[in-house]
Recover the amino acids of this structure.
Protein backbone atom coordinates (compact mmCIF):
# COMPACT_ATOMS: atom_id res chain seq x y z
CA UNK A 1 0.00 0.00 0.00
CA UNK A 2 1.32 3.44 -0.85
CA UNK A 3 -0.41 5.02 2.15
CA UNK A 4 0.43 3.13 5.34
CA UNK A 5 -1.12 3.49 8.77
CA UNK A 6 -3.20 6.59 8.09
CA UNK A 7 -4.74 7.91 11.30
CA UNK A 8 -8.32 9.20 11.49
CA UNK A 9 -8.32 11.31 14.69
CA UNK A 10 -11.34 9.48 16.12
CA UNK A 11 -11.33 7.13 19.07
CA UNK A 12 -14.31 5.10 17.92
CA UNK A 13 -16.79 4.99 15.06
CA UNK A 14 -20.12 6.59 15.89
CA UNK A 15 -23.47 5.17 14.85
CA UNK A 16 -25.93 7.11 12.66
CA UNK A 17 -28.12 7.81 15.71
CA UNK A 18 -25.29 9.57 17.52
CA UNK A 19 -24.53 11.93 14.64
CA UNK A 20 -25.58 15.53 14.11
CA UNK A 21 -27.98 15.95 11.14
CA UNK A 22 -25.24 17.18 8.78
CA UNK A 23 -22.94 14.29 9.54
CA UNK A 24 -25.75 11.81 9.38
CA UNK A 25 -26.82 13.03 5.92
CA UNK A 26 -23.18 12.78 4.84
CA UNK A 27 -22.79 9.23 6.16
CA UNK A 28 -26.05 8.14 4.52
CA UNK A 29 -24.80 9.43 1.17
CA UNK A 30 -21.53 7.54 1.62
CA UNK A 31 -23.46 4.40 2.62
CA UNK A 32 -25.58 4.76 -0.53
CA UNK A 33 -22.40 4.78 -2.62
CA UNK A 34 -22.63 8.44 -3.64
CA UNK A 35 -19.45 10.38 -4.32
CA UNK A 36 -18.51 13.32 -2.11
CA UNK A 37 -17.24 16.34 -4.07
CA UNK A 38 -14.83 19.11 -2.97
CA UNK A 39 -17.16 21.94 -2.02
CA UNK A 40 -19.70 19.77 -0.20
CA UNK A 41 -19.95 19.54 3.56
CA UNK A 42 -17.83 16.79 5.10
CA UNK A 43 -16.77 15.95 8.67
CA UNK A 44 -13.43 17.45 9.69
CA UNK A 45 -12.01 14.02 10.42
CA UNK A 46 -12.91 12.81 6.92
CA UNK A 47 -11.17 15.80 5.36
CA UNK A 48 -8.06 15.46 7.53
CA UNK A 49 -7.79 11.72 7.01
CA UNK A 50 -8.10 12.12 3.25
CA UNK A 51 -5.45 14.86 3.21
CA UNK A 52 -3.10 12.54 5.12
CA UNK A 53 -3.84 9.55 2.95
CA UNK A 54 -3.77 11.28 -0.46
CA UNK A 55 -0.68 13.37 0.29
CA UNK A 56 1.15 10.32 1.63
CA UNK A 57 0.15 8.49 -1.54
CA UNK A 58 1.37 11.42 -3.69
CA UNK A 59 4.68 11.65 -1.81
CA UNK A 60 5.17 7.91 -2.39
CA UNK A 61 4.77 8.33 -6.14
CA UNK A 62 7.30 11.17 -6.17
CA UNK A 63 9.89 9.51 -3.91
CA UNK A 64 9.24 6.25 -5.79
CA UNK A 65 10.96 7.77 -8.81
CA UNK A 66 14.29 7.87 -6.98
CA UNK A 67 15.18 4.17 -6.57
CA UNK A 68 14.39 3.61 -10.26
CA UNK A 69 16.04 6.81 -11.46
CA UNK A 70 19.25 5.21 -10.25
CA UNK A 71 19.06 2.78 -13.21
CA UNK A 72 17.97 5.01 -16.08
CA UNK A 73 21.56 5.64 -17.11
CA UNK A 74 22.53 2.00 -16.47
CA UNK A 75 19.70 0.19 -18.28
CA UNK A 76 21.02 -2.79 -20.28
CA UNK A 77 19.51 -1.72 -23.64
CA UNK A 78 18.20 1.45 -25.23
CA UNK A 79 14.70 -0.07 -25.29
CA UNK A 80 14.76 -0.89 -21.56
CA UNK A 81 16.02 2.61 -20.89
CA UNK A 82 13.14 4.17 -22.87
CA UNK A 83 10.64 1.94 -21.03
CA UNK A 84 12.08 2.82 -17.63
CA UNK A 85 12.05 6.53 -18.48
CA UNK A 86 8.38 6.27 -19.46
CA UNK A 87 7.58 4.46 -16.22
CA UNK A 88 9.39 6.99 -14.07
CA UNK A 89 7.62 9.80 -15.93
CA UNK A 90 4.30 8.07 -15.15
CA UNK A 91 5.19 8.08 -11.45
CA UNK A 92 5.68 11.84 -11.62
CA UNK A 93 2.30 12.11 -13.33
CA UNK A 94 0.66 9.95 -10.65
CA UNK A 95 2.11 12.21 -7.97
CA UNK A 96 0.66 15.24 -9.76
CA UNK A 97 -2.85 13.75 -10.12
CA UNK A 98 -2.81 12.97 -6.41
CA UNK A 99 -1.45 16.33 -5.24
CA UNK A 100 -4.27 17.98 -7.23
CA UNK A 101 -6.84 15.71 -5.59
CA UNK A 102 -5.48 16.60 -2.13
CA UNK A 103 -5.52 20.31 -2.99
CA UNK A 104 -9.29 20.17 -3.51
CA UNK A 105 -9.51 19.54 0.25
CA UNK A 106 -7.91 22.88 1.08
CA UNK A 107 -4.22 22.10 1.56
CA UNK A 108 -1.77 23.86 -0.78
CA UNK A 109 0.91 22.21 -2.89
CA UNK A 110 3.62 24.17 -1.06
CA UNK A 111 2.34 22.97 2.31
CA UNK A 112 2.49 19.37 1.13
CA UNK A 113 6.00 19.78 -0.24
CA UNK A 114 7.03 21.38 3.02
CA UNK A 115 5.61 18.43 4.98
CA UNK A 116 7.50 15.98 2.76
CA UNK A 117 10.80 17.86 2.88
CA UNK A 118 10.68 18.45 6.62
CA UNK A 119 10.00 14.77 7.25
CA UNK A 120 6.62 15.51 8.84
CA UNK A 121 4.71 13.62 6.14
CA UNK A 122 5.47 9.98 5.44
CA UNK A 123 5.79 8.07 2.20
CA UNK A 124 5.68 4.32 1.63
CA UNK A 125 8.34 2.34 3.52
CA UNK A 126 9.21 0.40 0.36
CA UNK A 127 11.16 3.25 -1.25
CA UNK A 128 13.75 3.27 1.51
CA UNK A 129 15.41 0.13 0.20
CA UNK A 130 18.33 0.30 -2.27
CA UNK A 131 18.25 -0.82 -5.93
CA UNK A 132 21.50 -2.75 -6.18
CA UNK A 133 21.19 -4.51 -9.54
CA UNK A 134 19.16 -4.30 -12.76
CA UNK A 135 17.05 -7.20 -11.47
CA UNK A 136 15.84 -4.89 -8.70
CA UNK A 137 14.18 -2.70 -11.34
CA UNK A 138 12.30 -5.72 -12.67
CA UNK A 139 11.40 -6.79 -9.13
CA UNK A 140 10.06 -3.33 -8.29
CA UNK A 141 7.75 -3.34 -11.31
CA UNK A 142 6.57 -6.87 -10.65
CA UNK A 143 6.27 -6.83 -6.85
CA UNK A 144 6.04 -3.21 -5.70
CA UNK A 145 3.76 -2.05 -8.49
CA UNK A 146 1.89 -5.35 -8.19
CA UNK A 147 1.24 -4.65 -4.49
CA UNK A 148 0.30 -1.05 -5.33
CA UNK A 149 -2.28 -2.24 -7.88
CA UNK A 150 -3.80 -4.56 -5.26
CA UNK A 151 -4.36 -1.51 -3.06
CA UNK A 152 -5.29 0.98 -5.75
CA UNK A 153 -7.92 -0.96 -7.67
CA UNK A 154 -10.45 -0.84 -4.79
CA UNK A 155 -9.58 2.83 -4.20
CA UNK A 156 -11.19 3.62 -7.55
CA UNK A 157 -14.47 3.15 -5.65
CA UNK A 158 -13.42 5.52 -2.86
CA UNK A 159 -16.16 7.88 -1.63
CA UNK A 160 -14.18 11.03 -2.40
CA UNK A 161 -14.70 11.92 -6.08
CA UNK A 162 -11.37 13.56 -6.96
CA UNK A 163 -9.37 10.74 -5.30
CA UNK A 164 -11.45 8.03 -6.98
CA UNK A 165 -11.01 9.69 -10.39
CA UNK A 166 -7.25 10.06 -9.90
CA UNK A 167 -7.09 6.36 -9.05
CA UNK A 168 -8.89 5.43 -12.29
CA UNK A 169 -6.20 7.18 -14.32
CA UNK A 170 -3.42 5.69 -12.21
CA UNK A 171 -4.72 2.13 -12.40
CA UNK A 172 -4.87 2.29 -16.19
CA UNK A 173 -1.17 3.12 -16.29
CA UNK A 174 -0.03 0.91 -13.44
CA UNK A 175 -0.56 -2.30 -15.36
CA UNK A 176 2.19 -1.28 -17.79
CA UNK A 177 4.51 -0.84 -14.82
CA UNK A 178 3.95 -4.32 -13.48
CA UNK A 179 4.20 -6.01 -16.86
CA UNK A 180 7.40 -4.26 -17.89
CA UNK A 181 8.99 -5.44 -14.63
CA UNK A 182 7.87 -9.02 -15.06
CA UNK A 183 8.99 -8.93 -18.70
CA UNK A 184 12.47 -7.75 -17.70
CA UNK A 185 12.74 -10.62 -15.20
CA UNK A 186 11.45 -13.21 -17.70
CA UNK A 187 14.30 -12.20 -19.99
CA UNK A 188 16.87 -12.43 -17.21
CA UNK A 189 15.87 -15.86 -15.90
CA UNK A 190 16.36 -17.25 -19.40
CA UNK A 191 19.88 -15.85 -19.43
CA UNK A 192 23.09 -17.23 -17.92
CA UNK A 193 23.02 -18.71 -14.37
CA UNK A 194 24.53 -15.52 -12.94
CA UNK A 195 21.60 -13.53 -14.34
CA UNK A 196 19.06 -15.93 -12.91
CA UNK A 197 20.84 -15.77 -9.56
CA UNK A 198 20.58 -12.00 -9.73
CA UNK A 199 16.79 -12.26 -10.10
CA UNK A 200 16.56 -14.69 -7.17
CA UNK A 201 18.63 -12.30 -5.07
CA UNK A 202 16.31 -9.42 -5.97
CA UNK A 203 13.26 -11.50 -4.98
CA UNK A 204 14.95 -12.42 -1.70
CA UNK A 205 15.46 -8.77 -0.85
CA UNK A 206 12.12 -7.36 -2.14
CA UNK A 207 9.67 -10.07 -1.05
CA UNK A 208 9.29 -9.10 2.59
CA UNK A 209 9.37 -5.32 2.11
CA UNK A 210 6.63 -5.82 -0.52
CA UNK A 211 4.44 -7.68 1.98
CA UNK A 212 5.08 -4.88 4.48
CA UNK A 213 3.67 -2.36 2.01
CA UNK A 214 0.16 -3.37 3.08
CA UNK A 215 0.95 -2.35 6.66
CA UNK A 216 0.52 -4.38 9.85
CA UNK A 217 -2.69 -6.26 10.56
CA UNK A 218 -5.38 -3.62 11.12
CA UNK A 219 -8.47 -5.69 11.90
CA UNK A 220 -8.51 -4.26 15.42
CA UNK A 221 -7.62 -0.68 14.44
CA UNK A 222 -10.24 2.01 15.05
CA UNK A 223 -8.65 4.08 12.27
CA UNK A 224 -9.16 1.29 9.82
CA UNK A 225 -12.79 0.73 10.86
CA UNK A 226 -13.49 4.46 10.55
CA UNK A 227 -11.80 4.66 7.14
CA UNK A 228 -13.89 1.74 5.98
CA UNK A 229 -17.10 3.40 7.24
CA UNK A 230 -16.11 6.47 5.23
CA UNK A 231 -15.29 4.24 2.25
CA UNK A 232 -11.79 5.63 1.86
CA UNK A 233 -10.51 2.14 2.56
CA UNK A 234 -12.29 -0.93 1.24
CA UNK A 235 -10.26 -3.93 2.40
CA UNK A 236 -8.25 -4.78 5.47
CA UNK A 237 -4.47 -4.91 5.19
CA UNK A 238 -4.44 -8.67 5.78
CA UNK A 239 -7.04 -9.26 3.08
CA UNK A 240 -4.99 -7.39 0.48
CA UNK A 241 -1.74 -9.05 1.58
CA UNK A 242 -3.35 -12.48 1.18
CA UNK A 243 -4.58 -11.58 -2.31
CA UNK A 244 -1.12 -10.36 -3.25
CA UNK A 245 0.59 -13.56 -2.05
CA UNK A 246 -1.96 -15.76 -3.80
CA UNK A 247 -1.46 -13.90 -7.05
CA UNK A 248 2.31 -13.57 -6.90
CA UNK A 249 3.54 -17.01 -5.78
CA UNK A 250 2.50 -18.76 -9.04
CA UNK A 251 4.24 -15.98 -10.98
CA UNK A 252 7.43 -16.62 -9.02
CA UNK A 253 7.09 -20.31 -9.82
CA UNK A 254 6.71 -19.48 -13.50
CA UNK A 255 10.01 -17.63 -13.32
CA UNK A 256 11.58 -20.66 -11.62
CA UNK A 257 12.27 -18.71 -8.44
CA UNK A 258 11.97 -19.63 -4.77
CA UNK A 259 9.93 -17.34 -2.55
CA UNK A 260 12.12 -16.70 0.53
CA UNK A 261 9.56 -17.88 3.08
CA UNK A 262 9.97 -21.31 4.72
CA UNK A 263 6.39 -21.10 6.02
CA UNK A 264 4.85 -20.62 2.59
CA UNK A 265 2.42 -23.45 1.90
CA UNK A 266 -0.74 -23.90 -0.15
CA UNK A 267 -3.77 -24.25 2.11
CA UNK A 268 -6.40 -26.20 0.20
CA UNK A 269 -9.08 -25.50 2.78
CA UNK A 270 -8.91 -21.70 2.56
CA UNK A 271 -7.99 -21.73 -1.11
CA UNK A 272 -4.95 -19.58 -0.50
CA UNK A 273 -1.39 -19.69 0.75
CA UNK A 274 -0.32 -19.74 4.36
CA UNK A 275 2.75 -17.58 4.79
CA UNK A 276 5.12 -16.24 7.41
CA UNK A 277 4.93 -12.96 9.31
CA UNK A 278 6.99 -10.03 8.01
CA UNK A 279 9.50 -8.52 10.42
CA UNK A 280 7.36 -5.70 11.80
CA UNK A 281 10.19 -4.35 13.86
CA UNK A 282 12.04 -3.65 10.64
CA UNK A 283 8.90 -2.04 9.21
CA UNK A 284 8.47 0.34 12.15
CA UNK A 285 12.15 1.16 12.00
CA UNK A 286 11.94 2.11 8.32
CA UNK A 287 8.75 4.14 8.91
CA UNK A 288 10.51 5.95 11.75
CA UNK A 289 13.21 7.06 9.31
CA UNK A 290 15.88 4.46 10.01
CA UNK A 291 15.69 2.37 6.83
CA UNK A 292 18.72 1.80 4.63
CA UNK A 293 17.97 4.77 2.33
CA UNK A 294 15.63 7.16 4.20
CA UNK A 295 18.17 9.96 4.48
CA UNK A 296 19.44 9.48 0.93
CA UNK A 297 15.92 9.60 -0.56
CA UNK A 298 14.86 12.69 1.32
CA UNK A 299 18.11 14.49 0.55
CA UNK A 300 17.83 13.65 -3.16
CA UNK A 301 14.26 14.94 -3.19
CA UNK A 302 15.19 18.15 -1.37
CA UNK A 303 18.18 18.73 -3.61
CA UNK A 304 16.07 18.28 -6.75
CA UNK A 305 13.61 20.85 -5.37
CA UNK A 306 16.34 23.32 -4.41
CA UNK A 307 18.31 22.84 -7.63
CA UNK A 308 15.18 23.61 -9.64
CA UNK A 309 14.43 26.84 -7.77
CA UNK A 310 16.28 29.11 -10.23
CA UNK A 311 14.34 27.59 -13.12
CA UNK A 312 10.95 27.92 -11.41
CA UNK A 313 11.82 31.50 -10.52
CA UNK A 314 12.80 32.18 -14.13
CA UNK A 315 9.48 30.89 -15.40
CA UNK A 316 7.61 32.99 -12.82
CA UNK A 317 9.58 36.10 -13.79
CA UNK A 318 8.87 35.47 -17.48
CA UNK A 319 5.16 35.01 -16.77
CA UNK A 320 5.04 38.25 -14.77
CA UNK A 321 6.91 40.19 -17.44
CA UNK A 322 4.66 38.91 -20.22
CA UNK A 323 1.54 39.70 -18.18
CA UNK A 324 2.81 43.25 -17.49
CA UNK A 325 3.51 43.76 -21.22
CA UNK A 326 0.05 42.69 -22.24
CA UNK A 327 -1.52 45.01 -19.65
CA UNK A 328 0.62 47.90 -20.95
CA UNK A 329 -0.43 47.14 -24.55
CA UNK A 330 -4.15 47.28 -23.75
CA UNK B 1 10.78 34.62 -4.60
CA UNK B 2 9.30 31.14 -5.35
CA UNK B 3 5.62 31.88 -4.90
CA UNK B 4 3.17 29.09 -5.70
CA UNK B 5 2.07 29.01 -9.34
CA UNK B 6 -1.63 29.44 -10.10
CA UNK B 7 -3.84 26.40 -10.59
CA UNK B 8 -5.18 25.62 -14.07
CA UNK B 9 -8.04 23.33 -15.01
CA UNK B 10 -7.27 21.11 -17.99
CA UNK B 11 -9.77 20.10 -20.67
CA UNK B 12 -8.89 17.57 -23.37
CA UNK B 13 -10.63 16.73 -26.62
CA UNK B 14 -10.12 13.00 -26.81
CA UNK B 15 -10.93 12.56 -30.49
CA UNK B 16 -12.04 14.72 -33.37
CA UNK B 17 -15.77 15.36 -33.09
CA UNK B 18 -15.99 15.02 -29.30
CA UNK B 19 -16.31 17.73 -26.66
CA UNK B 20 -13.38 18.87 -24.58
CA UNK B 21 -13.71 17.16 -21.21
CA UNK B 22 -12.33 18.16 -17.85
CA UNK B 23 -9.51 15.76 -16.95
CA UNK B 24 -7.83 17.41 -13.96
CA UNK B 25 -5.72 20.35 -12.96
CA UNK B 26 -2.11 21.44 -12.60
CA UNK B 27 0.08 24.34 -11.52
CA UNK B 28 1.90 26.47 -14.07
CA UNK B 29 3.28 30.03 -14.17
CA UNK B 30 1.39 30.98 -17.36
CA UNK B 31 -1.00 29.62 -19.99
CA UNK B 32 1.73 28.49 -22.35
CA UNK B 33 3.46 26.42 -19.66
CA UNK B 34 0.10 25.11 -18.53
CA UNK B 35 -0.52 23.69 -22.02
CA UNK B 36 2.99 22.22 -22.12
CA UNK B 37 2.59 20.64 -18.71
CA UNK B 38 -0.90 19.38 -19.56
CA UNK B 39 0.59 17.63 -22.59
CA UNK B 40 3.05 15.78 -20.32
CA UNK B 41 0.69 15.08 -17.44
CA UNK B 42 -2.56 14.22 -19.20
CA UNK B 43 -1.77 13.01 -22.74
CA UNK B 44 1.18 10.62 -22.41
CA UNK B 45 -0.80 7.90 -24.19
CA UNK B 46 -2.49 9.68 -27.06
CA UNK B 47 -5.45 10.71 -24.93
CA UNK B 48 -6.03 13.93 -26.82
CA UNK B 49 -6.03 15.94 -30.01
CA UNK B 50 -6.57 19.33 -28.37
CA UNK B 51 -6.00 20.92 -24.95
CA UNK B 52 -7.73 23.82 -23.23
CA UNK B 53 -6.42 25.32 -20.01
CA UNK B 54 -8.36 27.78 -17.84
CA UNK B 55 -7.20 29.42 -14.63
CA UNK B 56 -9.18 27.79 -11.83
CA UNK B 57 -9.77 31.20 -10.27
CA UNK B 58 -11.64 32.25 -13.45
CA UNK B 59 -14.25 29.52 -13.06
CA UNK B 60 -17.57 30.33 -11.43
CA UNK B 61 -19.26 27.24 -10.02
CA UNK B 62 -22.75 26.67 -8.70
CA UNK B 63 -22.85 26.13 -4.95
CA UNK B 64 -23.68 22.61 -3.71
CA UNK B 65 -26.20 24.18 -1.30
CA UNK B 66 -28.16 25.57 -4.28
CA UNK B 67 -28.60 22.15 -5.82
CA UNK B 68 -32.28 22.15 -4.86
CA UNK B 69 -33.39 25.55 -6.22
CA UNK B 70 -31.24 25.10 -9.34
CA UNK B 71 -32.12 21.62 -10.46
CA UNK B 72 -35.34 20.56 -8.80
CA UNK B 73 -37.64 22.64 -11.05
CA UNK B 74 -36.80 20.38 -13.98
CA UNK B 75 -37.77 17.26 -12.02
CA UNK B 76 -41.46 17.98 -12.42
CA UNK B 77 -41.24 18.69 -16.14
CA UNK B 78 -41.26 15.12 -17.30
CA UNK B 79 -43.05 16.13 -20.51
CA UNK B 80 -39.68 17.39 -21.74
CA UNK B 81 -38.70 13.79 -22.37
CA UNK B 82 -40.03 12.09 -25.50
CA UNK B 83 -40.93 8.97 -23.51
CA UNK B 84 -43.64 11.03 -21.73
CA UNK B 85 -45.84 10.63 -24.79
CA UNK B 86 -47.39 7.29 -25.67
CA UNK B 87 -47.49 6.87 -29.42
CA UNK B 88 -49.67 3.94 -30.57
CA UNK B 89 -47.76 1.05 -32.13
CA UNK B 90 -49.67 1.35 -35.38
CA UNK B 91 -48.22 4.82 -35.95
CA UNK B 92 -44.83 3.21 -36.33
CA UNK B 93 -41.44 4.69 -35.52
CA UNK B 94 -41.44 8.31 -34.35
Amino acid sequence: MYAQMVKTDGTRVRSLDEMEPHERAFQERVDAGQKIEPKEWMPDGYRKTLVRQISQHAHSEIVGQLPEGNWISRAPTLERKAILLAKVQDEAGHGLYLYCAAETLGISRDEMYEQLHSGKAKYSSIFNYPTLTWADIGAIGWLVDGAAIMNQVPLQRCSYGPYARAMVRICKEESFHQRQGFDALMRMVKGIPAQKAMVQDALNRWWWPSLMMFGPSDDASVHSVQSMAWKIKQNSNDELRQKFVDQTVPQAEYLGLTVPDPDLKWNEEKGGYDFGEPDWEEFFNVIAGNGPCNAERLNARKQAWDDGAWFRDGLTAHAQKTAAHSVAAE
Amino acid sequence: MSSEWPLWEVFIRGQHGLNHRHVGSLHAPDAEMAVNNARDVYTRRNEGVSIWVVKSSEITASAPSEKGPLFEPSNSKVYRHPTFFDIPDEVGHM
In short: Chain B touches chain A through 20 residues (CB under 8 Å). The CA atoms of residues 12 and 43 of chain B lie 8 Å apart.
